[in-house]
Design a protein that fits this description.
The complex is a heterodimer of chains A (105) and B (212). By secondary structure, chain A is an alpha+beta fold. Helices cover 57% and strands 17% of the residues of chain A. The longest helix of chain A is centred in the first third of the chain and has 15 residues. Chain A starts with a helix and ends in a 6-residue tail after the last helix. The two termini of chain B are 29 Å apart. Chain B has 212 residues and is an all-alpha fold. The chains are: A alpha+beta (105), B mainly alpha (212).
């Protein structure tokens, strides 16, 4: 997928992965990788951005005598997912336009 | 490369981040490697499958001139000029701004010289007075002692005058010491003011560099 387009999708993908349970960095990559290619260095700035914009919060938990940082979605983050889903029609319209079908006269 | 080497290398390459941000980033990558090892990879393999430290640091570098205010851009411009061309640039500024700063510097220097000369003259005057007082005291003593056998009254008068001079001299000396102390305190305060100003400017510049 085009890098510019991917960037926008990844943010929502991270939020979607966190929708049902809190996850740590490695697990997040593992979960999202099934759908979209993502590397650690791509994920990191996204997490930072989402945290800064209040879409997620973090906490640390001990695991095997070391600390693991968990990411947890906020209501703001959930709203972000809903906003994205509600723009499906808009996205499809653009998709169709690019495809060349159903052109608006 | 093992984990420690990888993180060390990354730490070095992330020197443009603030201490706090760098620590956070290193923790993130440390955790990922640990989790990879936990999922069954060897340490060597876990590290080798990471992106290179160069790629990681490149991705974290701030994009230039995006969403920056004009003043930030100007500060950045000065920053790059200073870091890249350093003293040469400073020298050029000094030379080209000569017509601006020379009269200011001349005025300030004249002012400082004036104050110093004034203080010098006053101190010289006071020292002369102390010296005169001391000489008069000694002279009075000698005269008083030499008159002692001839005329007791004259001797007592001379000794009395000598004592008066001694008193005045002592008072002058104490006063002078206090004045000199006062002046040195004022100068220390002025120099501290400059030092503090310099440090606060330096600190704010350092902070700006680190936050980038």
């Amino acid at each position: 997928m085009d890098a510019q387009l991917k960037k926008g999708f990844l943010e929502v993908c991270v939020l979607a992965a966190l929708r049902n349970k809190d996850l740590y960095g490695y697990k997040l990559i593992e979960d999202i990788s099934k759908y979209i290619d993502i590397s650690e260095s791509t994920l990191y700035p996204i997490l930072k951005r989402l945290e800064n914009s209040g879409c997620l919060t973090t906490y640390t938990q001990e695991h095997n005598s070391r600390l693991r940082k968990y990411y947890s979605i906020t209501s703001e983050g959930k709203k972000h997912i809903i906003d994205f889903l509600s723009s499906k029609e808009e996205i499809m319209k653009i998709y169709d336009f690019i495809k060349g079908e159903n052109e608006i006269e | 490369m093992n984990k420690a080497e990888f993180l060390n290398d990354l730490k070095f390459k992330l020197n443009f981040l603030s201490e706090e941000e760098r620590e956070k980033t290193l923790n993130y990558y440390n955790e990922i490697i640990e989790d990879r090892i936990e999922s069954g990879m060897s340490e060597e393999k876990a590290v080798s499958q990471m992106e290179s430290t160069k790629v990681i640091s490149e991705k974290l570098k701030p994009k230039e001139n995006i969403q920056k205010t004009t003043s930030e851009k100007i500060l950045d411009f000065i920053d790059t000029l200073l870091t890249k061309h350093g003293y040469l640039f400073m020298l050029a500024i000094l030379i080209f701004s000569f017509p601006i700063w020379s009269p200011i510097v001349a005025t300030v220097l004249t002012f400082i010289a004036g104050i110093l000369i004034f203080i010098g003259v006053v101190l010289l005057f006071i020292f002369l007075m102390i010296a005169t007082g001391a000489i008069c005291t000694v002279a009075g003593l000698i005269i008083g002692i030499s008159f002692l056998t001839q005329s007791l009254l004259s001797a007592i008068a001379a000794l009395g005058i000598s004592m008066i001079f001694a008193g005045i001299t002592i008072l002058l000396t104490i006063g002078t010491i206090k004045i000199i102390n006062g002046i040195s305190i004022v100068f220390t305060k002025i120099s501290n003011l400059f030092k503090n100003g310099y440090h606060s400017i330096k600190n704010s510049i350092d902070k700006r560099r680190n936050s980038k």
